[in-house]
Amino acid sequence: EPKKEIPLKYGATNIGKRQDEAMKRFRDNRLGEFIHWGLYAIPGGEWKGKVYNGAAEWLKSWAQVPASEWLGLMKQWNPVKFDARQWARMAKEMGVKYVKITTKHHEGFCLWPSRYSEYTVAQTPFKKDILGELVKAYNDEGIDVHFYFSVMDWSHPDYRYEISSKEDSVAFSRFLTFTDNQLKELATRYPTVKDFWFDGTWDASIKKNGWWTAHVEQMLKNLVPGATVNSRLRADDYGKRHFDSNGCLMGDYESGYERRLPDPLEDLQVTKWDWEACMTLPENQWGYHKDWSLSYVKTPVEVIDRIVHAVSMGGNMVVNFGPQADGDFRSEEKELAVALGKWMKKYGECIYGCGYAGWDKRDWGYYTRKGQEIYMVVFNCPYSGFLDVKVPKGTKIEKAALPDGQELKVVETTRNEYNVAMPSQNPGEPFIIKLQIKETS
Ligand code: JFZ
User: CB burial class (10 A; 0-12, 13-18, 19+) of residue 3?
Assistant: First the structure.
């Protein structure tokens, strides 16, 4: 018996995946770089001699620093080593096709000279429009720019966590107008922006104003043709977030996989919509933290595993970087970027433009697919010397080969099951095997 549709004014705007060029580009890009950069890079997790374990971009909150004192850090914003072209080159070398930049994080400091705030790069010793330089430099490298934007703003006196009085609702409506103005400003100053990734939208005040999240989505799409927005922006008429009261995804892609991924066997529902995950290298540090010994830091192979995992389930992956206050990157991040770039150059064909293959996952790794091309991405080498493959009914494997063309022996072991031989020489790193297939039914 079909469930009754709940009538919604501010629910999902599209049903099913968007199939226009801009969305296809978003999807085909698959690998992105996240940049978290703001005043929090200056203290780097330490306030008045105490180092806090929590996320460095939340230090203001951990150390209970009043906004006026926190924003005083602006006097020290002078990233003399900042070189936008260098950042963009590093990203290009790394193999990312897009970058997501924090235009404004929770602290309220704007990386662009906003007319609507006193707390911007223009009011610092450095003065320069950091965002403008980054947009230009990344675009010059052919890299798409996405804007991260926190609605919650700790610098603004009109922000409210909840609305419990007339005064609150008046202040909060001023705040929403301020936010509209900043977003219009971003969309018109930087018209090549491709995407807005909203954050800081979880408070009761915003859930109560679902209409506003629908309005922002429309406003940005009118200003920037083809623009994409994440589900985290959205709440419906009843304050339901990400998915509306009828279970339909709001925004263009789901953005709830943060430092975690869907289970490859249990969570296949994610292949029905577009989604993008993001990850940190330490356990939970987005902004620069001076002490990375406080948590485990992922190795390049673990990062690659997460990228392939996401793509194998039809998602994108964004790998985070938290540049230093001087405008340079820490050595750990530079090294990761080089390692990732090396791998992407060799094996990136199993990432770009690829998606869910629809084949049963095996223990050696993941499948990705681009048209008729199936990629086996191998992370675990079995002692048997064979990689087991179970094909969907009506599919035959005609050939298996390494990227250099070297063929691997394929044996049909039973109906719809094959063994693909491991390469005679162990590649010593995650590698790919391309399958040529024939589908009869
Ligand atoms: C948010 C921010 O608070 C954080 O500083 C960082 O910018 C990150 C990318 O986004 O943190 C979140 C937001 C959402 C979830 C978890 C952490 N979530 O949906 O699970």
Answer: exposed
